[in-house]
Specification:
14 helices, 53% helix
Length: 399
């Protein structure tokens, strides 16, 4: 196996030629580095007609958005590839296809999705994909059910938990979601005008106890193989199609974390829309986000329960009514994790374009305050929000 080296564009072309599985690999002639995330190099590989045919992705040994002062495990490339391969087994229509990966080079070749668009950018522009929320619910139901105790034999489940242990990436999540926003920390990133709002987070015992409980569940509830970072920037959409990408945070954790992260990003868009669109368009798009959240949850919960009825292998877990009771706990977790996503994307290191690209400073600050206050409320009152209709009512209450 090759030893690690950072790819150049020429390396990426040669690697795609070797491992891309094309009938005529010599057609691949050019690579352009297009990565705009926090962690990795991403190359589009073009043919002689200028058509993008494949993607080559390589992990760097540090956090790209910070630099070499923050080293990072290269094993995350293996975990990302294996998570996506496992998810593809269960939801091939909604998971990017991995064609090859090399754990020592920390690199993979995957299908090109140039005919798709990043969902976050489309949401910001007010472009609606009617199928997207339901397809995301389907993806989450299929991947989370089939990697859970409902489906896997206990021996297989424990072996997979060991295979997908991801301590360094989990530590990043633990810090960014559950630690940094609730203390003074150099990684936090927010306007000085919001200092009073952020200080209130640090001084709220009820909030911090609720966050501690969520962090404890994140530590200890190995319920299914999560994507681990399923936000609208890690989802591609096209007419009739949705594909999940970027699963380097994959590990076995609480199912509500993936659900809550997905809902949280739809709510971040909800909070930012008044600064992105005109008054009427923003109001209509906000109503659509609330419908998207309802569709996402109903799609997930209905499919999960159908799978549980048809495919649960454990005698106790197949008891009628248990899957529904389990999903009620997942829902409560999801609302809490959703709240932490809203807060960490407003206060912490990594923000979202839904709010950060708002040109008007005062409006941007107002949208950030909205996200913080909504996130804080959801974390604290999550146990009292029994269903998605109540969530929608609470969101409207805090708007």
């Amino acid at each position: 196996m090759s030893q690690y080296r950072t790819f150049t564009a020429q390396d990426a072309v040669a690697w795609a030629q070797q491992f891309g599985g094309l009938d005529n690999p010599s057609e691949l002639v050019e690579a352009r580095e297009v990565g705009d995330g926090n962690l990795n190099l991403v190359f589009k590989i073009f043919d002689t007609d200028g058509v993008s045919r494949l993607i080559v992705k390589q992990a760097l040994p540090y956090v790209r958005c910070v630099g070499e002062s923050w080293p990072l495990t290269l094993d995350r490339a293996r975990l990302e590839a294996q998570t996506l391969v496992e998810h593809y087994r269960h939801a091939p229509a909604h998971t990017v296809k991995i064609l090859h990966y090399d754990p020592l080079l920390a690199a993979m070749v995957m299908e090109d999705l140039s005919d798709h668009r990043i969902w976050r950018g489309e949401l910001i522009k007010g472009v609606h994909y009617p199928q997207a929320a339901a397809q995301l619910g389907e993806y989450l139901a299929q991947t989370l059910f089939h990697t859970s105790d409902f489906y896997l034999h206990p021996h297989d489940k424990k072996a997979q938990v060991a295979q997908f242990i991801n301590p360094q990436m989990c530590e990043i999540t633990e810090d960014l979601f559950f630690n940094d926003p609730y203390q003074r920390h150099e990684r936090n990133n927010y306007p000085q005008a919001l200092e009073d709002d952020v200080a209130a987070l640090r001084q709220d015992p009820a909030l911090k106890i609720a966050v501690a409980s969520l962090k404890h569940r994140f530590f200890s509830h190995a319920e299914a193989l999560l994507h681990g970072d399923i936000h609208s920037g890690s989802i591609f959409v096209a007419d009739g199609s949705l594909k999940a990408i970027d699963a380097e945070f994959g590990y076995f954790g609480p199912i509500g974390f993936d659900i809550g992260t997905a809902i949280g990003n739809l709510l971040l868009n909800y909070c930012g829309l008044p600064g992105q669109l005109g008054i009427r368009d923003a109001a209509a798009a906000r109503e659509q986000r609330l419908l998207d959240i309802q569709t996402l949850w109903f799609s997930f919960a209905e499919r999960f329960q159908t799978l549980a009825r048809e495919k649960t292998r454990d005698a106790a877990l197949s008891e009628p009514g248990y899957a529904a009771a389990f999903l009620q706990k997942v829902w409560t977790d999801a609302i809490g994790f959703c709240g932490t996503e809203l807060i960490r994307r407003s206060v912490g290191l990594s923000h979202v374009a839904d709010i950060d690209t708002i040109a008007d400073t005062e409006m941007r600050h107002a949208c950030l305050r909205h996200a913080i206050s909504l996130g804080k409320a959801l974390v604290v009152i999550a146990p009292r929000i029994d269903n998605v209709e109540e969530l929608v009512a609470r969101v409207r209450q805090y708007s």
